[in-house]
Design a protein that fits this description.
The complex is a heterodimer. By secondary structure, chain A is α/β, with parallel strands linked by helices. Chain A is built from 16 helices and nine strands. In chain A, 53% of the residues lie in helices and 10% in strands. In chain A, the strands form three sheets. Chain A has a four-stranded parallel sheet, sandwiched between helices. The longest helix of chain A has 18 residues. The radius of gyration of chain A is 20 Å and the shape is globular. The relative contact order of chain A is 0.14. Chain B contains 31 helices and no strands. Chain B starts with a helix and ends with a helix. In chain B, helix 1 crosses helix 15 and helix 7 packs antiparallel against helix 8. Among the domains of chain B are: 76 residues; 161 residues, Fumarate Reductase Iron-sulfur Protein, Chain B, domain 2, CATH 1.10.1060; 103 residues, Fumarate Reductase Iron-sulfur Protein, Chain B, domain 2 (Orthogonal Bundle). The chains are: A alpha/beta, B mainly alpha. At the A-B interface, helix 1, helix 3, helix 8, helix 11 and helix 12 of A face helix 17, helix 22, helix 23, helix 30 and helix 31 of B.
């Protein structure tokens, strides 16, 4: 299976490790990702300003994928929601579709809506499947407490994103379980990281982020796993910026999901770019490695098998 | 030919070129773009900036970075890897023009200085020089052809072409083509042939006839009296005499393959004006084109011949990490002067679709750079252009692709950040600041104070332009519902679930004071037809767009989407007011 790899604007320049680790993990399962230099911004940054300006870029991206006869695989939640929103808006509104296709026609592109938009977690969950992942595990974490923050735009509005149950999301949780980590129940799990307000209402943005950091730490998290690239930048870059002002604050290091899973699949830590997360230090990495051990589930199975044999 | 005229014209062109070069180079050390308020940057004199530049250069020369310098010369300047990486077509076009033109310049234009001193037997009429001149010329022409094709075919990919871009290609093309016409006219000219015979060959009448027959047959001379076809013996005899008298200094004209072919086209012209006059006319055309190009070079984008190598080497040895304030400005201005308006940045720009919807050329990086030169010189005061430039600088996803792909190695990112805050501090409030384009800027923490000040300016503009609940003195009345994109607010029955779940409302001790209207109150104002009041509430700009309200609404009111609509309408209204 091959996908057009939609990285958006932030990942290629600010979070390369998210792209490389996702690709490394998916390659393990025979899923190929093709980088498409022609892709442009998903449109999300313009959403406050103008709805059409917000939709057109995603329509162009989907038209490019269509032309390549590929579905799109997305990492960033905001890109994912923008692409899904554009698809949804154009299904409902055919005059708008014609109007936006008018812009694309200049470059010989046309949007018909045939390319599917998939979040990488959906691909891991539905196409690869947790059983399949489990069968390839070389390691598993033992007693590693992490807080996951799902990110708003992958879950809501549910009619648009159609990713998972927006109140009790299970895809991410089950995928986390596979790695053996303990995904804590904590208040900020389904809430906002503050990214959408950064640079617009800085105080409020920091407040929302700070609330999440302390919330996760209070719940006992050693690491935070942000799904969205905006959340990642909030926890990995904005948290660092905040710590520069307030050095006494305890950093909550970031570990991305494909990094967690990649370590369990035996992929080299360097390749997963764990050290590129700016909130992580050598002690954190040593701690991660100390908690990695042989997969437990397999042992149980073997036991069961041997019990059945006996 | 008339060497006095040539000397005078060359003198004028060289002087103009030198004056131009001094002028362009002085800009490197006198102009710059930076926010007026930046306190950490002292006023820098031109002298101080030149010293800083020299210090920087010396530091590179006497450090391990000299290796990077040498590598850059081969990889970036000679091989032009940055062009190669992005477009094979463009690399082919540029390499053909670059190598063809440079080699012609040294081998042919400066032949008395270069070729004659390198090769003791140099004669422009001997091979390989005769052949190479044509080869290099054809290389340039093919390159120009490819460049024209690229500019025409990439128009749909937002590659903008100015008259100045066509002029540059036209100039280069005319220089080469006129040179070929000149050589072709000389090839067919009987006068030129006769002069050479008189000067170099001592032949009797019979031998002269044979030699002429050979040159007409083999070398393309157009004789006014010799009648073809010639007998084979006559030509054979001519070949013999040619071998004795000519070949030592003059190879076969067929080696000048391009000019030899072109001569066939220019022959009717020579016949019309006379062969000697045709040579003179083409000579003037070629000389004037070449010298005008030389004089024009420093004032045009062709200045990149000098600036782009400097810019590329700076990029390579510093990795775009420059801390010395003087050198930051020097780097900016070297970068601006190195732009060739090739459009690579705009083709790859992640904001390209915003350019389509905002209808603002300045969203494309290549177009920004052209005008930033005027801003750096403090020459741009048209409020309309300043406003559009400000928006163009802000509607940017900060993906840095432009900087990564620029074939001239310009640090566009730094230029745009400085220019953005330079305009924001001085200019009018920028409504696009209230978008997620602000997110990467907040992360990068450049010019933080300037950002906050500009943000304050735009929030105040909104406060001034819209009604607020606290300003109302008379009781709110029910109005006619105004047409509004999303009608789901009609389902609101004021259960306040939205307000209760909102993480933003929760963040304030006194949310009504901080936010103006709470989410359910915004739905209520829409319900009574007061869109103005809803647009004026701080709540819509403080919305974290987390969609919790919308997801939890028991009656499917699309609150977050409605907030987006309100934000769009509010910005629209402000912009309409600003432009009217």
């Amino acid at each position: 299976m091959k996908y057009a790899f939609f990285q958006g604007c932030n990942i290629p320049i600010r979070i390369q490790q998210y792209a490389t680790s996702t690709e490394a993990v998916l390659n393990k399962f025979g899923i190929e990702l093709q980088v498409v230099p022609d892709f442009n911004c998903c449109g999300y940054p313009a959403r406050n300003v103008d709805e059409k300006a917000y939709l057109l870029p995603s329509v162009r991206n989907m038209a490019i994928a269509e032309k390549m006869n590929l579905d799109i695989l997305v990492i960033c939640n905001c890109c994912f929601a923008s692409l899904q929103k554009a698809k949804n808006a154009l299904t409902k509104d055919s005059p708008l579709k014609d109007e936006l296709n008018g812009y694309l026609a200049k470059e010989g592109l046309q949007y018909n809506g045939t390319a599917q938009i998939k979040h990488y977690l959906t691909v891991l969950y539905e196409e690869v499947g947790t059983e399949n992942i489990k069968s390839q595990l070389v390691n598993q974490f033992n007693a590693l407490n992490i807080s996951v923050i799902h990110g708003c735009h992958i879950l809501r509005p549910r009619e648009i994103t159609t990713f998972d149950d927006s109140f009790v999301p299970k895809i991410t949780e089950e995928l986390l379980q596979v790695t053996g980590v303990t995904s804590l129940d904590w208040r900020g799990k389904l809430e906002c990281c503050g990214a959408a307000l950064a640079g617009i209402n800085p105080e409020l943005s920091e407040k929302l982020l700070h609330e999440k950091i302390t919330g996760a730490q209070t719940a006992g998290a050693e690491f935070i796993t942000p799904i969205c690239s905006y959340c990642h930048l909030q926890f990995d870059t904005a948290q660092k910026n905040m710590a520069d002002v307030n050095p006494s604050a305890k950093l909550l290091p970031v570990l991305l999901y494909p990094q967690l899973l990649g370590l369990c699949l035996g992929i080299d830590e360097q390749k997963l770019g764990v050290r590129q997360n700016s909130t992580i230090n050598a002690a954190d990495i040593a701690r991660i490695h100390s908690l990695l051990g042989p997969p437990v589930a397999d042992k149980k199975k073997k036991k069961r098998k041997s019990a059945a044999a006996a | 030919m008339n060497f006095n005229i040539l000397n005078v014209l060359t003198g004028i062109a060289v002087v103009v070129c030198l004056v131009g070069l001094v002028f362009r180079l002085s800009i490197w050390f006198t102009q710059g773009i930076r926010p007026a308020s930046a306190p950490s940057l002292p006023t820098l004199s031109a002298g101080g900036r030149i010293v800083a530049a020299l210090q920087g250069a010396l530091q590179v020369l006497f450090s391990s970075r000299i290796v990077l310098f040498c590598k850059s010369v081969f990889v970036d300047l000679v091989f032009q890897k940055r062009i190669f990486d992005k477009s094979f077509l463009r690399w082919t076009a540029h390499s053909l023009i670059f190598f063809g033109f440079i080699l012609l310049f040294f081998m042919h234009a400066l032949d008395s200085l270069v070729s004659a001193s390198l090769f003791s037997n140099y004669q422009p009429t001997l091979n390989p020089f005769l052949f190479l001149r044509n080869l290099f010329g054809v290389m340039v022409l093919v390159g120009v052809g490819l460049a024209v094709y690229r500019r025409l075919s990439m128009k749909a990919q937002r590659l903008k072409t100015y008259a100045s871009d066509w002029t540059a290609l036209f100039f280069v093309g005319v220089i080469i083509f006129s040179g070929m016409l000149l050589e072709g006219a000389k090839i067919s000219s009987f006068t030129v042939y006769q002069n050479m015979v008189d000067e170099y060959a001592s032949v009797d009448e019979e031998e002269a006839k044979a030699l002429e027959a050979f040159w007409v047959e083999e070398n393309g001379v157009v004789s006014p009296h010799a009648v073809q076809p010639f007998s084979a013996e006559l030509i054979a005899r001519g070949r013999e005499i040619n071998g004795d008298s000519c070949i030592e200094c003059h190879a076969s004209n067929r080696a000048a393959f391009a000019s030899f072919t072109i001569a066939k086209i220019s022959r009717p012209f020579s016949a019309m004006v006379g062969d000697a006059a045709a040579v003179t006319i083409f000579w003037y055309l070629h000389i004037l084109a070449s010298l005008s190009f030389l004089a024009w070079l420093p004032f045009s984008k062709m200045f990149h011949i000098l600036a782009a190598p400097v810019s590329l080497i700076i990029k390579s040895v510093t990795g775009d990490e420059i801390n010395e304030p003087a050198n930051i400005l020097n780097r900016q201005m070297i970068g601006l002067s190195a732009c060739t308006h090739c459009g690579t940045c705009s083709i790859e720009c992640s904001s390209s679709m915003f350019y389509e919807t905002f209808k603002n050329d300045f969203i494309l990086p290549s177009e920004k750079v052209q005008y930033l030169k005027r801003f750096a010189a403090n020459k741009e005061h048209d409020p309309g252009i300043v406003k559009r430039m400000q928006q163009g600088l802000y509607v940017c996803t900060s993906c840095d692709r432009c900087t990564t792909v620029c074939p001239s190695g310009i640090n566009l990112k730094e230029l745009f950040v400085s220019a953005r805050y330079s305009l924001l501090t001085a200019g009018t409030p920028e409504t696009t600041m209230l978008s997620h384009f602000s997110f990467p800027l907040a992360l990068a923490q450049n010019f933080v104070d300037d950002h906050l000040k500009a943000l304050k300016k735009v929030t105040e503009l909104f406060k001034k332009n819209f009604q607020h609940l606290s300003d109302l003195t008379s009781p709110i009345t029910l109005g006619r519902p105004s047409p509004f994109g999303n009608n789901s607010y009609k389902g609101c029955f004021s259960c306040q679930r939205c307000t209760n779940i909102c993480p933003v409302v929760r963040s304030y001790d006194n949310p009504v004071e901080a936010l103006g209207l709470l989410p359910h109150q915004i739905m209520f104002s829409l319900g009574i037809g007061n869109v103005e009041l809803a647009m004026g509430s701080q709540m819509i700009w403080s919305c974290s767009t987390c969609y919790l309200c919308q997801e939890h609404c028991p009656n499917q009111v699309e609150l977050c989407d409605i907030f987006y609509n309100l934000k769009n309408s509010a910005i629209n209204k402000i912009e309409a007011g600003a432009s009217s």
